[in-house]
Amino acid sequence: RIDRVLFTHHHLDHFGEIGHLLFAARLPVHGRRKPLTLAGSGPLLAAVRAFQKLFGHWLKPTGFSLILHDLDEEPLVGEGVRVSGYAVDHIPASRALRLEEEGGAVLTLSGDTDLCDGVVTAARDADLFVCEASFPEGSKKPGHLVPSEAGALARRAGARRLLLNHFYPECDQVDMASPAAAAFGRPVELAEDGMVVDILPAAMKPAS
Q: Is 57 in the same domain as 101?
């Protein structure tokens, strides 16, 4: 059922299951037969190749073709969606992802990032901006955002909705939404496991 996998970067909490995915895809009976595309930055794809080299034939595609698409070279286009990558301030391989649907809807995923222009460009006029807020206010860590910073980025980008994600455990005990909403100037949503979000392009939204 999975034809394309998009990666923001290759830290383990974003990339660690790649071995399981490629191993399961080559199973003799229930394995994959359709092509599988992995998309990300050039450095990320180099990490995929290194992972394959480490485990040898166990991660070698069998019965299907594996396509490694470098978003630094060109966007990934297919199934009515265009995916572009934008360099952000986390590690050299990190990219925010902008998904533009042919009907006009725009979704941006910040991935892990600190304050930077790249994520603002990626989220420009997005209908939904899914942005990391890894730590509470007052607990800023380099390479990550606190809620007020995520809200400020969303406001700069002109995003229409802001959904915060990527919470470390300490975030469970505090109000993450209010500081982000104050900076954004609009209500803010918090992501949860299994959450389904409908995205409606601005041109289709009823006038308020």
A: no
pLDDT tens for 116-131 read 999 999 999 999 999 9
Which residues span the domain enclosing 123? 75-208
Cβ contacts of 47-51, under 8 Å, gap ≥ 24: 47/10, 47/15, 47/93, 48/10, 48/18, 51/18, 51/19
**6, 22, 35, 89 from 1: Cα distances, Å:** 15, 14, 11, 32
Section 105-114 average pLDDT: 98
Percent of the chain at pLDDT > 90 equals 92
CATH code for the domain in which residue 168 is found: 3.60.15.10
Do 88 and 111 meet the contact criterion of CB atoms below 8 Å apart?
yes
- 180: helix, coil or strand? helix
